[in-house]
Amino acid sequence: AQSVAQPEDQVNVAEGNPLTVKCTYSVSGNPYLFWYVQYPNRGLQFLLKYITGDNLVKGSYGFEAEFNKSQTSFHLKKPSALVSDSALYFCAVRVTSGTYKYIFGTGTRLKVLA
Amino acid sequence: DARVTQTPRHKVTEMGQEVTMRCQPILGHNTVFWYRQTMMQGLELLAYFRNRAPLDDSGMPKDRFSAEMPDATLATLKIQPSEPRDSAVYFCASGPGGQNTEAFFGQGTRLTVV
Question: Which residues of A touch B100 (CB under 8 A)?
Answer without folding.
Answer: 32, 49, 51, 94, 96
